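Final report, results section. Input specification for complex C-07:
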Amino acid sequence: MRSRLLFALLALTAATRVAAASATLTATVKDTKGAPVTDAVVSLIPLDSAAPPPAEPPGEIAQQTQEFLPYVTVVQAGTKVIFPNRDTVQHHVYSLSKAKKFELPLYNPGQKESLVFESTGLVTLGCNIHDWMIAYLLVVPTPWFAKTDEQGQATATAPAGRYRIEIWHPRLSAALAQEIALPAGETTARDFSLTLKPDRRIRRGGATKTGGYR
Amino acid sequence: MAPPLLRFRRFSTRLLVIVLGLLAAALLSTYLLVTRANQANAIAHIESRLAGDVKVFWASIDFRKRFFVEGAKVVSRDWPIRTLYLQPQLDLKTLRTTMESYAARLNAPVFATFDVDGAMLATTNDSLTNDSCGPFRHLIKKADENGWEQNSDFGYLEEKLHVLIVVPLYAPEPNIIGWFGIAFPIDDRFARDLKETTQTEVTFTSGLTEETKRVLATTLPPNLAQQVADQAPAELKPDGQVMVTNMGPERYVTLYAPLELLAEDPARITLQRSLETELAPARRLEQTMLFILLAALIAASLIALAVARGVSQPLQQLAGHTELVAAGDYTRRIELPREDEIGQLATAFNHMTAGLAERDRVRDLLGKVVSPEIATQLLQSDLKLGGEEREVTILFSDLRDFTGMSERMAPTEVLTLLNRYLDRMSTIIEKHGGVIDKYIGDAIMALFGAPVALPDAAARALAAARDMADALEDMNRELEAEGKPALAFGIGINTARVVAGNMGSHTRLNYTVIGDGVNLASRLETMTKEPAHRTSIIISEATARAVGEESKLRSLGAVTVKGKTEAVKVFAVDIQPRPWPTRPQARPPTQAPYTS
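Structure output:
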C-alpha cells in the first residue's frame, strides 16, 4: 500500500512538473489513553489549488477467509476499486452508504468485480452472507493521504502549501479536521489524539453455545 | 374468699365452672394462637410467593423482550430490507408491507422502522404517528449514545402501557442505517396470561396522584381493579410493599411493585393472592380443632361432674351423718370403700363418732360413778387440785350391823341387797338436790350445797333424811314379805363451812369436802347407835338453826367433838310412824328373794 502510494506520488510529481519542492507530514495518531491508533486515515486536502485527478493504479478490497482485506481502504474520488474473491466460498458484497449504494451479487471464488467510486465519503462494505464481514472504503477528494501503521504513524508527502488535514477512523464519531501549512523540503510532525468509540465489530461465530442462557 | 362470681351453693357447679373456665380459656387461647399463627404463616407464605410471582413477571417480560430482540435482529439482517435501502429513494409503502411481513413472522403487535435520527418511516400500526412514537425515539437516542445493540423499556403508546424495544438496523454491523421498533402491550390479556402462570390476580395501574390513578390492565372486575389503583401507595421501595387488603368479601395479600416508565411517572404492578384460599387448609384444621375443643369441653364437664359427684355425694352423706350425730345418734357408721382423702375423712368421721359415743358413755358412766352435778362440774371445769371454802350440809347414813348381817349371806346376795338399798337412798337424796359424795361400804356420804350452792340446803337434807327413813320402812316391809331380815340405819346431818374441791393425785381426783364439819356429821350418825337417844336421825345445832326448827326438835344436849373444845348442841329428829293402810302399795319385789 505504502509503496503504491509513493509510486503514485512520484508519478504525480513527474507528470505535473509544476509542483515545487515537496513537503512531508508525519502524523502520529494516538487515542486518549496514549495507545497508537492503527487504520486512521490522514488526508491532506489542498486549500490553495485544486487536487489533481486520480491516477492509476486502482484500489483493491479482497475477500479472503471470509474477511475483507484490508479493513480500511482510502482512494481518491474517481478511482476504480477491484473486489477479487480469493476465498473458497461465494460472497455478496454490498454497501448501503450514501456515498455509493451497490451490490455485487453472489460471485464465485476466483472471480473479481470492480467499481469506480466517484463520490467522496465513507462507503461501508458488508457481505450479505457473512454478517461479521465489514470493510471501510474512504473516498477522499485528494491524492495525498496515508493510513496509520501499527505504531500509529502515517507519512504523507505533498507539495508545499496549505492543507486541511482530515483524520478519519472507523470508531471516530466525526472526522477531525484542521488547517496546516506544509513548508517546502521539510518534514512536519503532528500528533493527534482521537476519542474513539469502543470497537463493536461482531465476533465471527459469535453465537453463544448455551442458547442465550447465562 | 372467693369473689361473688365464684360462690356457688353446689360444689359440682363450682368445680364445673372452674374446670370448664380454665379449660375453655386454655383451649380458646390455643385456638386463637393457632389461628393467628396460621394467618401470619399464610401471609408470610403468600408474601414469599408474591415475591416469586414478581420474578415470574419480570422473567416473562424478559423472555418476550429477548424473543422480539432476537427476532428483530434476524429480520434486520434480511436481504429484502437491504435491497429496499439500496434503492436511491426509500420506498416507504413497500417498507410498510415489509414491516407487515416481519410483524407476522415474529407475531409482534407493533412493528415500526425509524431512520438513524429516530424519525418514524413506516409502521404496521396505522394509528401511530411520528409524534406518538416519542418513547421509541427516547430509546433510540439512548441506545445510539451508548452503542447498545438493543434498548427496551416500559412506556405509553397511545396512552396504553407497552413494552417498547428498539434494535438497530445494521449494514453491516456496527454500521447503523436505521432502527426497528417493536412494542407489545401490557393489557388484560397479558395480565390473564400472567395469572394463568402464577395463579395471582394481576393489575397494572398508573398515576401517583388521585386524579391520574387509573387501571391499565387487570384480571379483576373493574370496580375492584379501581380500588387497587386507588389504594396504590405513592412511595414504593424497589422491591415493593406488601399489605393485606379487603376486596369485596375477601381478603387479599397485595404486593405493590414499582414499574419504572420511560420519561413518565412510574406505574405499579399489583399482584394479589386470596388469603382465604391460602388459609383454606388451615381453616379445615381449625374447624377440626374447634370440634376437638368442644369435645374436650364436653368430656371435661362430664368428668368434672363425675368428680364433683364423687366428692359431693360422700360429703352430703357425711353431712347427713353429722346431723344424726348432732342429734345424738352415735350408732351410724359411714361405709365408703375408698382409699383417698374422702375415704380418710369418712374413716376419721367414723372414729369421731366412735369417740363421741365413747365420751358420751364416759359421761354417762361418770354420772353414775359421781353425781350428775359433780360430773357436770368436772366436765365443765378444768380438773384441778384444790378447792374453795363454802357452807355445805353434809349427810351421813350408815346401816346398823350390816357387817354382821353380811357375814351370814353370800357375797352376791350382800351386794344385791346393798345395791337395792343404796339405789333407793341415792334416788331420794338426788331428788332433794343432794349429791352423793361417796359410798363407803354400806355408808352414804351426801352433800347439799356443793358443788352447786343451794339456799335451803339444810332443809333439803332434813327432808331427804325423813324420806329416807320412810323409804327404809317401805323397804323393810318388802324384805319382810320376802322373808328377809329388816334393815336399820342411822343418819347424821351437819351444816358447816368446809373446803370443797378436787382432791387426790394428778391422775386420779375426787370431788369431795373436807373439814371438821364432815367429821361432826359422821359423829352424829354414830350417835344414833346409842339406844338412849331413841332416834335414827341426829342433826347438829347449825343445821337445826338453818332449818329454823330448833324449838320443834328434841334436844339431845351437847356433845364434844374430838379435837374441839367447844361443845356442839345436837337434836334428834323423830319420825312419826305412818299408819300402815294409808301407805301406798309397796312395789312388788323386783328381785328374787335371796335364800339363806
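The longest helix of chain A spans residues 2-16. The radius of gyration of chain A is 19 Å. This concludes the modelling results for the funded period.
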